[in-house]
Amino acid sequence: xxxxxxxxxxxxxxxxxxxxxxxxxxxxxxxxxxxxxxxxxxxxxxxxxxxxxxxxxxxxxxxxxxxxxxxxxxxxxxxxxxxxxxxxxxxxxxxxxxxxxxxxxxxxxxxxxxxxxxxxxxxxxxxxxxxxxxxxxxxxxxxxxxxxxxxxxxxxxxxxxxxxxxxxxxxxxxxxxxxxxxxxxxxxxxxxxxxxxxxxxxxxxxxxxx
Length: 210
Prior knowledge:
The protein has helices at residues 110-116, 149-161, 186-198; strands at residues 13-14, 19-23, 26-30, 38-45, 67-69, 78-83, 89-96, 104-108, 123-132, 138-146, 167-172, 175-183, 204-208. The protein is α+β, with helices and mostly antiparallel strands. It folds into two domains: 35-132, Barwin-like endoglucanases (Beta Barrel), CATH 2.40.40.10; 138-208, Alpha-Beta Plaits (2-Layer Sandwich), CATH 3.30.70. The strands form three sheets. Strands 4-8-5-7-6-9 form a six-stranded mixed barrel. Strands 11-12-10-13 form a four-stranded antiparallel β-sheet. Residues 1-36 have low confidence and may be disordered.
């Protein structure tokens, strides 16, 4: 019975699709690890006109950061982008979706394109390799942010008395934030926030930095 193999749906050509060995006269392809898979195609850049607008990850677009848009890689993934014409390479973090033009596989920020030396060309043939997978995404529900620690503590205590036992006060940058829970799914955090708002409190879902 023939063996079947499944490969990740990468866009563009794959340079390192796997290693071929011979077992009993049959060619077998070993599924590649993430770090072994290269995506090859065209890179473009963007960011000046989009400065300050929310990216798909929710971060404001900052053309001065080493970031990029990719069609499918998880936000927070770090990739090495190598210009196949010059051999120059940079590392960027994926925080947006795109590009939305056929045959283009990554959209670099202005700063990333500058360091790669492709600003004037506009586009460049590149190889994209994942060097660091995205960290786990964690969400929490924030009920308020206060200058007064006592106010934050009082709100947290009220929430605990109402059954939200995971309420805590997190201090930082001179602000005391009242937060509840840690969730891997945004939908779970949204459900909790909705219930808290129904009790008369303000509540928003916050993505925590890893």
